[in-house]
Every structure is written in structure tokens, then in C-alpha cells.
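Pipeline run #58 for the internal structure catalog. This entry was flagged by the ingest filter as a single-chain record with no existing model, so it goes straight to prediction. Upstream metadata was stripped on purpose; only the residue string is passed forward. Reviewer on rotation: M.T. Logging verbosity set to normal.
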Amino acid sequence: MEQTIATEKNTVQEMKKPSIYSLQLHELKEWLQTHNEKAFRAEQIFDWLYKKRVSDFAEMSNLSKTLREKLKEHFTLTTLKTIIKQTSLDGTIKFLFELSDGFSIETVLMRHNYGNSVCVTTQVGCRIGCTFCASTLGGLKRNLEAGEIVAQVVKVQQALDETGERVSSIVIMGIGEPFDNYDQMLSFLKIVNHEKGLNIGARHITVSTSGIIPKIYQFADENMQINFAISLHAPNSELRSRLMPINRAYKLPDLMKAVRYYIEKTGRRVSFEYGLFGGVNDQAEHAEELANLIKGIKCHVNLIPVNYVPERNYVRTPRNQIFKFEKILKEHGINVTIRREHGHDIDAACGQLRAKERKEETR
């Protein structure tokens, strides 16, 4: 009995320790100095974390034993446990990871002709409530800390190390609303972008939001070179409110105003993510309305043939209708592409694998 209590106590203490992946380089330097260590050790630690990608502090052989013990005492290193790894015929790999507190998240590796892209999760669940998305089933459990987001990329990169490949781009489009976990998301961006970190170029990183307007203004003022996408999915307020309840709080006209501010502030274009749902938002009149909504905006439209989610009632738009929708946008001079499907033969929709395997989290 005493041994069981001691084990549970140690587990709780381990869970309370932050991930070392949460620290930006300057923060790690500050931590070292406050613990009577040399600041230059931070770059050595980053090298072990992001270049050599070790899984234990004990492997950091050019650090003193005392420092390694300090790191182990204050931080966790391995924060994700692989529960399921699904591999698609097209090379897409979906991971279901378990966190230290038992909650689960999804991360996806997508293979393109231009490189390997990782789609990361920022929250356990989601409170936005989009009616087509499996990620929001069961609501929001908690935010991820920056290190738990970083660890997703590290875990995928460790898998790619076996074949001599590397992660070349990141999309923040997994479970959760990134701007609802803004500070941790921003810290993640700075860590993976840093040359001493994973060194993923800013223009190879894309963050997507469903439209938390105050954070769009804040993100614009960060003036980063990160690619920016808006989950739009409807060309008018009435339909968008039906699909995405967030539109009731942050109205479509105000969202478009924020988008224009972002473009003016950064000089960068915005991508509009537009999922096509059969008989809902995929008709010719919707394409015409969308073209009028975004006319004159420096943008790109990404049409997404949606994956079927059993818990939702939406169906896929027929292929010929997708091409018709695209054609109308092009006739209006809109830059548009149809997103290539990934992992159609596995649980590809965002949150779908978690909903199937961890029903207690998504009720």
C-alpha cells in the first residue's frame, strides 16, 4: 500500500514538471544562470534536444553530472507516448499520442512532393464548436504547453530519422483553436523557428484560426513571416453561424476587417480554408458570394473536400461540383487550389482517431 502511494506521488510530481521543450533559448539561459550554471550551456542543451534529439538527459554527455541531475529534477523530456500509429497507402502517418496526464492528442505527418509536413495540435479538445469537426466532441479539456506542441514535431522527426528524412514544414491545424492558446502557440513558433532549435523557416510554417478577432490583430502586430490562414467555410454570416458558432461572437464583416488589417500590417497574403459540404455551402451561388466577399483581398482560397466523420451529418461534395466551384472562383480572378487529400484510407479527419479510440474524452 505504501509503495503504491509512493508511486502515485512520484507520478504526480513528474506530471507537474514542465517540459524542457517549452523553453525558448533565452529562457533556458536565464534558468541556467539562476541555478548557478553557465548561460552558454543552453546552446549545448538545444543541440542535444533538437539536433541529436536525445530521449534522456543522461545522454547529454558534455554536460556535468550535476547539471544533468538539475535538468532531470526540474523538467520532463519525453512527454508523449505513442498509443496508435496509422499509416496510409499515400504515406500519411497519423499518431495518437498520450500526454503525461492521460489525455490524448493527434499529430499527422503528410508527405508532399516538396517535403514532409507535420500538422500539430494545440489543445486537448476544442471549445469552438464547429458543427463539422470531430475535434470539438467532448469540448475543451485543457491547453497544451508549448513543449507539448514542440514534442509532437520532435517525435515525428525522430520517426523520420530512421529513413534519413526531415520535417520541412509545419501546419498548426490539428485539434484545438491555436489562437485560444495564443501565448503557448507563439512560444512554440519561436522555438521551432529558431536556428538553434528545429530551424523550420517561418515561411514553412502556417497557423490557422477560426476567427478570434482580437488575436488576429495581435498576431499581425507580431509582424512574423509565418503563413496565416482563416478557416472560413461559408460566404455569408447566416451560413457561417450555422457551421461555426464562433461567428456569433466574432461577426464575418469584423473578421474581414481584421484580415485586411493583417495584410496591410504585414504585406503578406492570407489563405482562406473553405471546406466543401455536400448541399450546404458548395453550390454555384455560394462560389459567387465567396468571390464577392474576398474580392480585392490579397489572398488564396484552399478548397477542402471534407472527410466523412461518423459523428457528424455532412457528406462529401461530388467531384464535378468541386471543380465547378473552383472554376467560378477562377473566373473572378481568385487564386484557388483544391487541397490534395491525405490519409483517406485511415481516420484522416481532424480529431477522428481520438474520437474513435478515446471515447471517454470525447463524449
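catalog note: The chain has two domains: 2-74, 81-362.
catalog note: The CA atoms of residues 221 and 265 lie 7 Å apart.
status: ready for reviewer M.T.
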